[in-house]
Design goal:
The complex is a heterodimer.
Chain A: H1 10-28, H2 34-53, H3 57-64, H4 72-79, E1 81-85, E2 98-105, E3 108-115, H5 121-126, H6 134-149, E4 154-160, H7 167-171, H8 174-187, E5 192-201, H9 202-206, E6 213-217, E7 221-223, H10 227-235, H11 241-248, H12 252-257, E8 263-265, H13 276-295, H14 299-311, E9 316-317
Parallel strand pairs in A: 3-4, 4-5, 5-6, 5-7, 6-8
Antiparallel strand pairs in A: 1-2, 2-3
Chain B: H1 3-7, E1 27-29, E2 36-38, H2 39-44, H3 60-67, E3 74-76, E4 81-82, H4 94-105, E5 111-118, E6 121-128, H5 139-155, E7 159-165, H6 173-192, E8 197-206, H7 207-210, E9 219-222, E10 228-229, H8 233-240, H9 251-256, E11 262-263, H10 269-280
Parallel strand pairs in B: 6-7, 7-8, 8-9, 8-10, 9-11
Antiparallel strand pairs in B: 1-2, 3-5, 5-6
Helix pairs in contact in B: 5-6
The chains are: A alpha/beta, B alpha/beta.
Chain lengths: ~325, ~325
């Protein structure tokens, strides 16, 4: 088993391994196996296409958490110049699970804020698996107010399993930190563009996710509770996560259909991690377009529009 | 009784004929101190144990009943009903869960909002019903809350919310998450208008409800012993794999950590909230205040004379606490 591939991707991994093997042989001997290689590559592409054409919500949620999934800091150098990271909530600590700072997007100064997961074990621990504590949300809010004061648009990247459920986080007011961000973001007088790039885990995601345009990468997820959490509560067994993923409608396609997000950004074949540059290109285009649209409005219109969008969430009989 | 039982009396009697004729449910056991409580007496004490002060959960309807003045109540958004747009189905259908909850509670959803008065101060009050699917917040709860906020905003009258909720309603998936943004955004408007919002967290206030409307009060209060937090104790226990400190996430713990302003005993709820609101609104003190504290903004050039309305500080106090509904009984 190749750990860089998920269960349902293993056939692709096997084919790719075969191609690599042939390449190696091809370099070694002088037999012309070029045709064989391109035949296998084409087969690999078709196979990937057919697997990715009918992904289940549960498989998509695995791609959203793929160990090679690009994180906020992977996109930053490809999308922005002149990034200056800002640290700390000015009250307790700096939370490495949320990164943020000033940067230039297509020349224009902006404030970038995003969840950050770690790649290796040490980094994962330092980033707390992308699960922020209250100080992370308070840092984010501080940066948003800074952005508001100096008329910088805010761009957020969402990728978290959720806000951290720990003793210290509770003691320092996790609920209040999230609640305050929701309130302040609803009335922040500068454009806010939010993109779910991996896992949109509940309140921990929404706390930097209230904005004028909410976008999702094709294979990212956004949910009120993780499929495992939902399954263990409603089905009394975490093994029913696949059913929960289905029922919760956590995929970009379903959420767009329900009108809960505005735009889906297509991912390269096989997912964002298979071609980071192409992914960043698509993401950059979507961000550029969203920014241009939001900046064409005056601030009163923009804020009134945001408020109305938020008030429209919900389905009920009246 | 058979001749054998007469001869050898059983120590454990399950014999129904032996029961005394006591109406069902007249006695209750207190979850706090295990005392046996007489139900009518408990009701007089607003479901607070007279022995140990344990606060039992109240239904939303009863909460409004005991909190508001009896005259001039008007429900807000009563016609709003839930719908199952996702056709959510786990081990049961959401639709069936809704029907069962509606039947059990007699309510359409987990939040009730009313306009009324509290000691003659016009107020809007929202109350969660924990019996309705754990007081979970879905689209109806969000919408009713927002309408309550809007009434408070338009009429410039204070808003009070009694929360009791496990959090967002999973069966409404991302729609329920978005209610956190919706209720918080509405409160931002109320705040901008300088209309007071008092949040009273009751047992339990967790998850998406605590991480939105409940923590956003101009004043955050809680009932004694209420469990309040973001993640549930079990989830935290599983994450940190250590025993949680005693009293963790209880109201008293939150006061200690600076998360809430105060704890209010339910038997003093009306008095204390009315007194606080009266100050925020620059109204004269409410009727339970002692007369010598009466607030008369002095008029230009007016000379304050000693009269019956303004007795000197050392004058004897009149008996000003006649028993009336909503005030604490002697206990």
């Amino acid at each position: 088993m190749n750990p860089d591939f998920l269960d349902f991707e293993q056939p692709i991994a096997e084919l790719e391994a075969k191609v690599e093997e042939l390449r190696y042989v091809g370099n070694d001997a002088e037999i012309n196996i070029h045709d064989e290689i391109s035949r296998l590559q084409a087969k690999c592409k078709t196979l990937t296409e057919s697997i990715f054409a009918k992904l289940t919500p549960w498989q998509i949620s695995q791609i959203a958490r793929h160990p090679r999934r690009p994180y906020t800091l992977d996109y930053l150098p490809l999308l922005f110049r002149d990034f200056h990271e800002l640290h700390g909530d000015r009250a307790f600590a700096d939370d490495p699970a949320i990164v943020g700072g000033m940067a230039r997007f297509a020349g224009q100064p902006v404030m970038v804020i995003g969840h950050q997961k770690g790649r290796d074990t040490k980094e994962k621990l330092r980033r707390n698996f992308g699960m922020p504590r209250p100080e992370g949300y308070r840092k984010a809010l501080r940066l948003m107010h800074l952005a508001e004061r100096f008329a910088l648009p805010v761009i957020t990247f969402i990728d978290t399993p959720g806000a951290y459920p720990g003793v210290g986080a509770e003691e320092r007011g996790q609920s209040e930190a999230i609640a305050r961000n929701l309130l302040e973001m609803s009335r922040l007088r500068t454009p806010i563009i939010c993109t779910v790039v991996g896992e949109g885990g509940s309140g921990g995601a929404l706390a930097i996710g209230v904005g004028d345009r909410v976008m999702m990468l094709e294979y990212s997820t956004y949910s009120v509770i993780s499929p495992e959490g939902c399954a263990s509560i409603l089905w009394k067994s975490a093994d029913r996560a696949a059913d929960a993923a289905e029922a919760l409608g956590i995929t970009s396609a379903r959420l767009k259909e329900l009108g809960l997000i505005d735009h889906i950004i297509p991912e390269p074949l096989g997912g964002a991690h298979r071609d980071l540059e192409l992914m960043a290109h698509h993401l950059g285009e979507a961000l550029g377009q969203a920014l241009a649209e939001m900046q064409s409005m005056d601030l009163d219109t923009l804020c009134a529009r945001r408020y109305q969008r938020i008030m429209d969430y919900g389905q009920f009989k009246d | 009784m058979s001749w054998f039982e007469k001869l050898v009396p059983s120590r454990i009697r399950t014999d129904a004929t032996n029961k005394r004729a006591v109406p069902e449910g007249l006695w209750l056991r207190c979850d706090g101190c295990n005392a046996t409580l007489y139900k009518p007496e408990l009701e007089r004490c607003l479901d607070v144990c007279p022995k140990c002060g344990h606060h039992r959960r109240l239904s939303a309807r009863r909460r409004l009943e005991v909190f508001l003045d009896s005259e001039g109540r008007e429900e807000i958004g009563a016609q709003i009903e839930p719908m199952d747009i996702l056709r959510f189905r786990d081990s049961k259908k959401y639709k069936d869960r809704l029907t069962a909850a509606q039947k059990e509670t007699g309510e359409k959803d987990a939040l009730i909002a009313m306009r009324g008065t509290l000691k003659d101060i016009p107020v809007v009050v929202a109350a969660f019903d924990f019996n309705f699917m754990g007081g979970s917040m879905g689209s109806v709860v969000g919408e009713r809350f927002v309408r309550a906020v809007n009434v408070a905003c338009e009429q410039r009258i204070p808003l009070i919310c009694f929360s009791a909720s496990g959090g967002a309603r999973m069966q409404e998936a991302l729609f329920s998450l978005m209610q956190m943004a919706k209720t918080s955004a509405a409160l931002a408007r109320l705040r901008a208008q300088r209309v007071p919002y008092l949040s009273v967290m009751t047992d339990p206030t967790m998850g998406g409800v605590s991480a939105s409307l409940a923590m956003l009060g101009d004043i955050n209060a809680a009932e004694p012993g209420a469990l309040i937090g973001f993640a549930g104790p079990r989830v935290i226990q599983q994450t940190v794999r250590e025993t949680l400190p005693p009293g963790f996430q209880r109201a008293e713990f939150l006061v200690e950590h600076g998360a809430i302003d105060m704890i209010i005993d339910r038997r003093e709820m009306r008095e204390r909230i009315a007194a606080i609101l009266a100050m925020l609104l620059h109204r004269p003190p409410t009727d339970s205040q002692r007369p010598y504290l009466e607030y008369h903004p002095p008029k230009e050039g007016e000379v304050q004379a000693t009269d019956s309305a303004n007795p000197p500080l050392d004058a004897p106090l009149p008996d000003d606490n006649p028993a009336k509904p909503g005030t604490p009984s002697a206990s």
